[in-house]
Structure formats: structure tokens, C-alpha cells
Design goal:
This protein is an all-alpha fold. It is 76% helix and 0% strand. α1 crosses α3 and α2 packs across α3.
Amino acid sequence: MSLDDLARAHAELSQRVNSLYADRAALILDARAEGHTWQQIADVLGMTPHGAIKASKMTTAD
């Protein structure tokens, strides 16, 4: 594998990871819109309510 191949693969993976973060944020916001509490969402995701709130705002891995 060349360094160019590595760079392309890394860029593709980064884009996919960022897409997953955005998808998770949208799902969390959908759950909130349906009336679920931050605690309920956090319990399902295995995180704290603060973590769920933070995750709901993440659209990238940065």
C-alpha cells in the first residue's frame, strides 16, 4: 500500500465516522422529539445524560 492509498483510505474512513456521528445525533434528537428524556436516552446508549446531550450536538468526530 502506498502512502497515497493510505491517505485516501484514511480520508474515506474519517468521512464515514463523521457521518455516523451525525446519524447518531439525528437519532438522539428524534428520540427527544418523541418525548423521551435525556436519562432514558442515556440509559439506552450506555452513557450519562450529559454525554447524550453532547452526542446530540456532534456532527463530526472532532
